[in-house]
Amino acid sequence: MSITDTDPLKDGKVEGGVIPTSLRSADAMQPRPVLWLISAVAVSLSLFQMYTAGIQPLGLFYQRPTHLAFVLVLAFLIFPVFGQTRPRGVLGWIIDAGFVTAGFLSGFYIIWNLDAIIARAGWWTQTDIIMGIVCTVAVLEASRRAVGLGMTIIGAIAILYALAGARGALPGLGEWMPGVLSHRGANTDRLVGQLYLGQEGIFGLPLGVAATFVFMFVLFGAFLEKTGAGKFFIDLAFAATGRKPGGPAKASVIASAGMGSISGSAIANVVTTGSFTIPLMKRLGYKPKQAGGIEAAASTGGQITPPLMGAGAFLISEYTQVPYIEIVMVSIFPAILYLGTVYLFVHLVAMKQGMRGMSPAELPIVRQVLKAGWQFIVPLLLLVWLLVNNISPMRVGFWAIIAVIGVAGLRGLWVLYADGPITGARLRDSLMRGLRMIYESLELGARNAVAVSIACAVAGIIVGVVGLTGLGLKFSSMMIALSGGNIVIALGLVLIASLILGLGLPVTASYIVLIVLVGPALHNEFGIPLLIAHLVVFWYSQDSNVTPPIALAGFAGAAVAGAKPMETSVQAWKFAKGLYLIPLFMVFNPEIIYGGPLPIVLWTGFTAMLGLVAFASVIEGWLFGPMDPVSRVVAIPAVAALFWPDLTVEVAGAAVLVAILGLNWMRARQQARAT
Prior knowledge:
Blueprint: E1 13-14, E2 17-18, H1 32-54, H2 60-78, H3 89-112, H4 114-119, H5 126-146, H6 149-163, H7 171-174, H8 188-195, H9 205-226, H10 229-241, H11 247-263, H12 266-284, H13 288-302, H14 312-320, H15 324-352, H16 366-373, H17 377-388, H18 393-418, H19 424-469, H20 471-483, H21 487-502, H22 507-525, H23 530-540, H24 552-561, H25 565-575, H26 578-588, H27 591-594, H28 598-620, H29 629-642, H30 647-674
Antiparallel strand pairs: 1-2
Helix pairs in contact: 1-2, 1-9, 1-19, 2-3, 2-9, 2-19, 3-5, 5-6, 5-8, 5-19, 6-19, 9-14, 9-18, 9-19, 10-11, 10-16, 11-12, 11-13, 11-15, 12-13, 12-24, 13-15, 13-24, 13-25, 15-28, 17-18, 18-19, 19-22, 20-21, 20-22, 21-22, 22-23, 23-26, 24-25, 28-29, 28-30, 29-30
């Protein structure tokens, strides 16, 4: 049997709760001709991306504007101006038709007039300025619809900040600026030239990454999803861990890591994987808030798990100029540490509450799962092999998609042959099913990429303003002043900033904004290696998924589990503690990322695992058995000692922790013998 053979989702409901409207399809209120148009635009975008990735690459000012034009048109078609639950009406159609036109012109105006724009660089025409304003407004409105009001507000504030100043278009607003944030200001022409007519604004690096690497991997994930990879990963995870205490929760950790490499979205992980794992966790004895929190923490782990890392690996590679494959390789062990910590929390909760695993009759068999889904492993192996051979990630995504289509086709032919004689009618039906799968995958991939592409476009606005006003240098000065040069306080400030930004920005945009503002200070002023500084900011940008008061993945988990959102978010925050500790370990033990002499690398890996095990045990009050209060108190400074950049202190902390954990093991064994 297969876990996914039973569908907990019926009539929009799940066991114990209802999926919120924001997570349902936006197509329910759309007329059929509009759905056809959306489908045609989405498939056209995917085919364009496939062509430029695998056949004929295009230049920067052809690829990015075309991508943005497609994405804006899709956004305005998918998300009506007055919301997804209300009919557009005449007024809505008029407004949306205007924005669809604006989105189309925003990208293709650049393409049609590229040579002339380059020739008059700096001497913009009135039409250039008007189109720049139209594009900026269109991007902000698309952000409001597809990403959220918070990001739109932040983008608008950035524009107002650029215009404020003695020489700016809004000199009066500049008088309200604190001294450290004041600047001379920019006029409209200069700002539009920065944001629309150059390569440091809307069409800058964030959108460039979204329009190339990220889109291809999102499309690759859509093909895997449509061919059944999600079911394969979930079944495989249950087959591996289902019999163990708290089996569904442990399967959630493994399946979410696999799904995270496909979807690139923590919320999508929670809703897809959690719809199966959360009801099973509740059935075994996990409280609803625990089940939702476990799924949210595990799904967040999918965002830091290679190869996709929620688009983070591509962005880090572009910003640091470190090859993508190296980003993937150095991220494997930290991702294992995080997922291992969540797995340990799950195990400790199960042991404390005396839970058992699922019966073998309820679980799929590994051999049968692999027999049914071996084809999903082939494209992943090809993807890794191509990356190791330094093939461009965009080209790798192209060939991985071709591989998915190829193995799915071979699998379909084999099933066709095994079911009986091959006739023309059966072959035709099988071919039509395959073509329908390809068409639906192309459409799904484009739809899934809309939000991240628009978020990157708005992030480009913010990055352009930072470059125009020198805001990054001002933030560096503020960080040094507030932290007093203390690196721990500085990292704490970054964590607070990431949480505040996470209230209004998606993870990818939060990382881009943070790294532009605080990255130079972490690297230049506090001496943190460049790659580690980026990884720290990227990891901290994930905390908005699981940290109250706005924990998006936690809220999604609460909806599926039928629990209170805030209680579920607190549980997710507890289970995701590795999200805060592992970046600290990277800073004070850079060998975990950069490597070094083998003894030091082994010691660093050992202390990292020891510290995380001890920390989880202290929080839960349990490891092999109950932990006494004295041991829990003593373990806290010992864990802190492992982060101290001094070998003597690290050894002392490790010795204390080994002694405490060893004592807990001995007491648990004695108690087991006595009972």
